[in-house]
Design goal:
Layout (H helix, E strand, L loop, with lengths): L11 E6 L2 E6 L23 E6 L15 E2 L17 E5 L15 H8 L12 H9 L8 E4 L9 E3 L2 E2 L6 H9 L28 H9 L3 H22 L27 H20 L5 E5 L18 H7 L10 H22 L2 E2 L2 E2 L4 E6 L15 E4 L10 E4 L6 H10 L24
Parallel strand pairs: 3-9, 3-12, 5-14, 6-9
Antiparallel strand pairs: 1-2, 4-14, 5-13, 7-8, 10-11, 12-13
Helix pairs in contact: 3-6, 6-8
C-alpha cells in the first residue's frame, strides 16, 4: 500500500519526554520511493550524501596500491580489510599534492590540496570541498553539515573562509542529543543527577509511542518491517549511548589524583578511538537516513601535529613511530606503523558497514553516498606528498562506476575533488590553484 499522498517525506513523530518536546524523523520508506526504490515517489531524485573521511599518515608505499588496474582489481595488503566492499570502492594511486615552492607543512599541506585544491597562502584560506558541497546542497536539510572527530579533539580541516571553520563534535552522545534530543548534561560533574529530559537516558521513542503506533497502522507490510527495524536500531543505539550517562560503580581503592585527569573523551588509545568512531558512524547514519543532513566530515585522528593514536599501555604515538621505528628487513615495512594503518582500514570498513545496513528499497544508504578518504602524506616515514592514497566509496545514487583502481601517474589530487563536484551535480569546470589547477575530472568513473 502506497501512502505517498497522505504521508509526507519530511513527516516526523512528535512527543514529550520529561516536559521536553522531542521528535523522531523518518527514514526513506518504500511509500516515499518509486516502484524501483531508485527515486522519490514524486519523481524527485534521492539526495546524494557526501562524506569527507580523514586519517593522518596514510598508508605505506608498495603495500596499499592494488596489484592490478581497472575493475575487479586485486587488493594489496593494507586495503584487504575493505575487500567485502571492494566493488563499491574506487582506489586512486599515483596522485600527488603540488606545493609550488611554498613552505611545506608536513601534516597540513597534503590535506589542503586534497580537500581545498591548493596551498593556503598568507591571509588566504581556500574553502574545503565539504563546505563547497554543503553550500550547494545543505540548505535543504536541518544541518548544513555535521563534523566529528574521534580522538576527543575538535579541530578539523573544514573551512569556508579564514574566519569560518567547522569545529568537530568530539562526543557521540553530544552529537546524538544535538540531532535527536535535548541538551546533554555532563555525567562526570560532581552534581550528577539523572535528568529525565536527556533523550538518551529516557528514550525519545517512549515519548512518541501513540503516534508511532498510529503511523505503523497506515503502512504496508514492507514499510512496517523496515520502520520496525529502524526503531529497533535506534533503541539499541540509545541503550548503547545510555551507558555513558550512568555513574560508574564506586571502587573503594580508588583515590582522586592530585591533578585533574585528562577528559576520558580525549582518549588516543586506538581501541577507544575505534569505539568512538563506531558510535559516531551509527549516529551519522541515523541522521542521514532521517534527512537531517547530506554532508558529513569525519576525522578519525590527525591534524597539524600528525596523528596521536597509540596502542594501549604505550606512550609512543602513531606519528612518532613513523619516524623512529626501523623497517623490518624481512617484511619490508615498519610493523607497528602498518598495524596502525590496518586499524584505520578496519575503521573505514566499520563506517561503510554502518551505512550499508540502512536499506532503502533494494539499495542502501551506502549506495547513495559518496565517501572520500584522504590523508596528509603519501609516505608516513618520509612525510612525502607523492603517491597520495585517495579512495572514493559508495555509488552516489548510481552516478559512479564503482570498483576501479586508477593509476593516475603523477596528476594532482585536485582531480578527485573536481570529479566529486561533478558527480554531485555541481557546474564546476575547473578547480584548484597553481600546479594543482585542473579541468580534468576522472570521467572513467562517472556514470
Amino acid at each position: 500500500m502506497r501512502m505517498a499522498e497522505k504521508l509526507k517525506r519530511r513527516e516526523v513523530l512528535r512527543g514529550m519526554v520529561g516536559g521536553t518536546a522531542v521528535s523522531v524523523a523518518l527514514p526513506f520508506l518504500d511509500c516515499f520511493l518509486n516502484s524501483n526504490g531508485t527515486a522519490l515517489a514524486d519523481g524527485g531524485k534521492l539526495p546524494v550524501v557526501f562524506t569527507s573521511w580523514f586519517q593522518g599518515l596514510g598508508f605505506t608505499p608498495g603495500f596499499w596500491e592494488p596489484k592490478t588496474q581497472g575493475f575487479n582489481y586485486e587488493s594489496n595488503l593494507q586495503l584487504k580489510p575493505l575487500d567485502p566492499f571492494k566493488k563499491k570502492i574506487t582506489v586512486f594511486s599515483g596522485l600527488r599534492a603540488y606545493t609550488d615552492g611554498n613552505v611545506v607543512v608536513p601534516h597540513g599541506s597534503g590535506p589542503q590540496v586534497c580537500q581545498a585544491g591548493g596551498i593556503t597562502k598568507k591571509n588566504e584560506v581556500l574553502p574545503t570541498i565539504d563546505t563547497i558541497i554543503a553550500d550547494a546542497v545543505g540548505t535543504r536539510t536541518r544541518f548544513r553539515s555535521l563534523d566529528v572527530r574521534c580522538d576527543g579533539r575538535s579541530e578539523t580541516f573544514s573551512r569556508r573562509s579564514a574566519s569560518s571553520s567547522n569545529p568537530a563534535e568530539s562526543s557521540p552522545l553530544a552529537l546524538y542529543n544535538r540531532v535527536f534530543g535535548a541538551e546533554f548534561r555532563d555525567p562526570n560533574s560532581s552534581d550528577f543527577t539523572a535528568d529525565p529530559s536527556v533523550v538518551a537516558r529516557k528514550s525519545v521513542l517512549s515519548g512518541v509511542t501513540e503516534r508511532r503506533t498510529a503511523l505503523m497502522a497506515r503502512l504496508g507490510s514492507a514499510d512496517k518491517a523496515r520502520l520496525d527495524e529502524y526503531f529497533t536500531s535506534l533503541r539499541q543505539l540509545e541503550q548503547q549511548l545510555d551507558l555513558q550517562l550512568q555513574r560508574p560503580d564506586p571502587v573503594p581503592s580508588c583515590r582522586v589524583p592530585a591533578g585533574a585527569p585528562e577528559d576520558a573523551g580525549r582518549t588516543t588509545d586506538m581501541a577507544d578511538v575505534r569505539r568512538q568512531h563506531r558510535l559516531f558512524a551509527e549516529v551519522l547514519a541515523h541522521a542521514v537516513a532521517c534527512n537531517q543532513t547530506n554532508v558529513l566530515g569525519v576525522n578519525l585522528s590527525g591534524g597539524a601535529g600528525g596523528s596521536g593514536l597509540r596502542k594501549a599501555g604505550s606512550s609512543m604515538t602513531f606519528h612518532v613511530t613513523t619516524h623512529e621505528e626501523t623497517v623490518d628487513p624481512k617484511l619490508g615495512y615498519q610493523p607497528t606503523v602498518v598495524w596502525f594503518q590496518q586499524q584505520v582500514a578496519e575503521a573505514m570498513f566499520d563506517f561503510l558497514t554502518a551505512f550499508d545496513k540502512f536499506k532503502e528499497g533494494p539499495s542502501s544508504l551506502l549506495d547513495r553516498s559518496l565517501i572520500m578518504y584522504s590523508t596528509d602524506n603519501g609516505d608516513a616515514k618520509t612525510h612525502s606528498q607523492l603517491n597520495m592514497p585517495m579512495l572514493l566509496m559508495g555509488g552516489a545514487g548510481g552516478r559512479v562506476k564503482e570498483g576501479q583502481h586508477i593509476a593516475a601517474g603523477g596528476h594532482t589530487v585536485a582531480r578527485v575533488g573536481l570529479t566529486i563536484q561533478r558527480i554531485m551535480g555541481m557546474p564546476t569546470t575547473t578547480w584548484g590553484t597553481e600546479s594543482n589547477t585542473t579541468s580534468q575530472p576522472f570521467t572513467e568513473i562517472m556514470a
